[in-house]
Amino acid sequence: NQPRATNHEQPTTSNQQRTNVQHPEANTTMIRTAMSKAAAKTASMPVFAHTLIRTTRMPDSRTFSAVANKLLPPMATGTATAINGPMLGPAPSAPPLLSPQRPSTTSRFISSVPFAPAPASSLPLVPASPTQCQLQRWWSASFLRAASTNGNGRSLPELPTNVSDYEDLFNTSAFWNASLKNEDVEKMLNKHFSMAAPPTDFWNTVVGDRQSFVDTAKEEHNRVGNLEGMADGFLRKSATDPMSLWIKSPDDNNDMNRKNVFKWVRSSLKKKPENVREAILNDLEEISKDKVNDVEQVKELHCNNTVKTFYVGHANFRHKGEAQKRPPKVFLNKPEADQDDKVWVYYTNSGSGKTVELAASGYLRGGVMSIMNKVSKDIPTRDNTESRKTECRKALISCLDDIVKTNKATFETLIKSMNAWEKTTEPVRIVFCIDEASSCPNLLRAIISEYEALSGELGNYIASGFGGAIDTTKKNAIQVLFSVAGTGAYQGSSGSLGDNYQYLTPTGNVVGEDLYKTLTSEYEDNDHNKIGTLPGFKDLQDAPFLWIIMQYNARMASILIDQMYNSQLRYNHPHEETRLMSLVFEKYVRSNGMHFLWHSQGDSDQSKLNTTSNRLHVASMGLATYLYPQPVTIPAGEDEISELALGLDYGIRFQSFSAQEGKAKAETRSGSGSTDADVPCDSNVTGNKEKRRRTLMDLLVRECGLVTQEQFSKKTEDNVLEQPFIVNEAMQLLCVWLMQGGQRLKSTESLLGTTPFAFEVLSTQLVSCAISAAMTVQVEHRPKVHEILTKSLGMFRNKCMLGKEEKPFLDPYVETSWAALENVIPVSIKCDLAMDGMYHHKSPMLLKAKPESKGDDKLDTSKTGGKTPATRTSTKPKNSEAWANVATMAIRKGDTLDLDSLKDLEEKKDFDAAVASSQQEETLTMDRDMLIGLTQMRQNKDCDGTPQYFTPSLCSVAEGNSNLADGTVSFIGAKWNEREEKLEDHAMYTICVQAKDIFGKSLKMEKVHNNLNRVKHDLNNIPFGENRMYCVASRAHLVTRARVNLDNGFTDGKRNDDMPKLETKISPFVSYPTDGTKILSGVMEAIDERRNRQEKIVKHGVMLKYEEE
């Protein structure tokens, strides 16, 4: 445990020095110089010896003897006891020759072969000479730092080795100031141990140790653990090293010593603060890593890669969809009004980054930190009275007191830093933030009304130490600003004094390239754990579904990036793209207020039905809010505006479903959309929360965060707001995904279906979504089917000029089916299969009919009453025996099916399938489940009233290539009676969607006619009802081009008598321009373009040929 007198410089091991050590002549001058210095400084000989050893490698026996004999003449030998005796007498004429020996311990800083004192019997006798004795001790006992006397017989001080002797000094930030020089450190040590004049270089060991730890902490890439690793290495060399033992502090000290050293060193590197704000920020950073009773104090956020900001309290970021997950880095666009004292209000949809904006308000608003609060209870008084002001103050003070209980050290540091700064020209800004402000509209209105007075009162309350006496010089030294956020925060703020608040849009509401880079930077240091790849921001444009997610929701974006990085799913593969989309949506829904749409209360069928119905109902209402808005007139008075915003009873009226009452209500005009019974059952919430739901719109806006209120300031000149609510494209896509089946979907049954790029499937799904969304609207305001198809989906009937008049130019059957939809209102009817979302056929749906004619121009309609005969598709199997197990069912023309007749359907054998397939018999083959579902829907069509639970339309997509259509959407429609009191004439309607590739050429009308002839065949009356409409889906300019040459009997709008009229050239479909829909029109255009074979060849292909010789 003797002190070592070395610093931490490692010995040089260059080839040149090795050469010097091995050749005696190279060391002669150095040793001569060392010996002369030793004679002049007898008292410091032990230190000098170690200095020499540190400077060069230890010479071997031959080298040392040769050098010594060259410097000193020979002398007699004697006993070795004189070594430790008094160093008296004249200098000898020659020193003894020493033999190197191995010591018992070595210095950790010496990499050469160490030496130990030789046995006493083998040591030469040395006269009492200081120089001789000192030289002897270089290679013996003094090497072990065990010298106890100097040349005059006085005791030399020993280096303290007890850790407790150093603790008071080591526990001061001043000792670890990186700017301290070594002589300053020695002075601190002398003062601490009350040493007036210790030997020269006495503190070299401690000073060197300290410098090594300081240098390690200074390195930007190092962390606290690096200090621990260094201490471990030192202790392996010397188990009693006091500084290393202190750095490795025992468990009962919470291992805080090395953390403090790291913090103190880093803090000392910062430039001197220029104002009180910088001083406070520096002090907050020092304590940001501390914990008191395992509770983290002030938390740190890294903004825009360079700026650090702080907050206290609870902030539920839900980064990557995980509760309480805090993003390591954030990107924020700083508003121009960063010094504005008004109340800042954020009210966008869930996942747009509102919580991040609040937590970083210290940076955004020029303050030192944010105080995060989540108010669980609103104040009772709504009107602007003295009572409301008092309640508001008490509520805010109570919030502050609760925060201080667990963050006392933070506020003590803040007040201490502020008081230490004598000159303060500007008040210190602290931002009081309320997250989830939708739950406290009365408190929010009170804050907006009294924000100026509250700012000073709360500031003085904090400056006084939370209720104590305040120094008059520190009065108004703290200014409290207010920022609030919540999906329904517009409710509580609208109608307040306009000069007292302003609305802001979070940066994460529209994800740009800078935010994307910030989110992906989290993974830059983890390449060794890398599984997937992270594409560039613009590369995601090739994945239309993921591009929407990335653009419109920061939380979805963080989940997507995490999934791409930690999985092998490729963003640019069509099937894997939709699998990624499903993973993102599932985690997103579970992370916010929509989680109740995923969890049923129990395993009973009824509980699962409640949850499934709620999920479909919420998604349909979200789309209805966007598709079928009801314009609202904005009142003039502030109180009236506040009442309108807070009630959320405008913009759309939703239909009531009677599940809570246990019986069906008549679907009449008396239905109301604003009662508590309308709200989908949330089995995971308490009764109090249930009571707070005033309307279904309140559920969509405040709890689910699907819908965002539009500002009333967007009204027209006549005070009318045409689109009262906003549903961005990410939320539209989420609703479509939920309607299609959500997490139940497999990757092969996602939006892509069985063909790439989703066009056939998604075009059908959008028709179903538009019709199902209309079913949620209160029946007296519900749009009719024609309005749904034309305004929401952009469908149109092909027209041409007959003379000067523009008229429809359709096949008679298409005209009839379109006319049959006039004044029809879709209604929700119980259908179990529809509750599963889109149905994907498990077997081909094929119609085998009479032989088809070749060419539309040769069709003879005279024998069919003007109707085009049906076409035939051969379904004869290669192995006719396989048909023996096919279920068959015969039904008379005009009869209808019911569920009783379909019992044991798989066992029915009404006729021989093999015979029917080989002969010219007309048959329809389809899935049994689909037939049962359609039958159940049609059987329930006469129910007088709405079902207990919302049920969407029944949507299906064909397996492989169907010769009927790519997809079907079936629903029950009804019409008002003459007095418009009641809905009647309930019937099944089916829209058949055919997706066609029309790229640079006209549509082949012969194939379309054949499809139409199969669609209108009487056999389809059995499952799909008698009202079926056929439409062709493609982009607008393509379906328009497809009808240009429908009738070559017309030229420039005039009849050409020289050309025969060809009725078969009349357009056999309704045009469905998928890029003209209100829902996801951009996605439809992108995925349709990706079906273009020529474009795919240009992008991915190469053309080869043989060159002619």
Report on this structure.
- By secondary structure, this protein is α/β, with parallel strands linked by helices.
- Helices cover 37% and strands 10% of the residues.
- It has 37 helices and 27 strands.
- It has an eight-stranded mixed sheet.
- A hairpin with a 2-residue loop joins β15 (799-802) and β16.
- α15 (386-406) packs across α16 (408-420) and α20 packs across α21.
- The chain starts with 14 loop residues before the first helix and ends in a 9-residue tail after the last helix.
- The model is unreliable at 1-29, 36-148, 660-679, 681-693, 752-757, 853-868, 1043-1054 and 1059-1064 (pLDDT under 50).
Find the count of extended strands (DSSP E, 2+ residues): 27
Strand order of the largest sheet: 5-3-4-7-8-9-6-10
Average pLDDT value? Answer: 76
Oligomer description: single chain
Q: Compute the gyration radius: what is it?
A: 43 Å
What best-fitting shape do the alpha-carbon axes yield?
elongated
Q: What is the percent of helical residues? A: 25-40%
Major sheet size, sense and barrel closure: 8 strands, mixed
* Continuous helix count: 37
Strand proportion, as a percent range, falls in 5-15%
Question: Unreliable runs, pLDDT <50, ≥5 residues?
Answer: 1-29, 36-148, 660-679, 681-693, 752-757, 853-868, 1043-1054, 1059-1064
Structural class label:
alpha/beta
Q: Separation of termini?
A: 93 Å
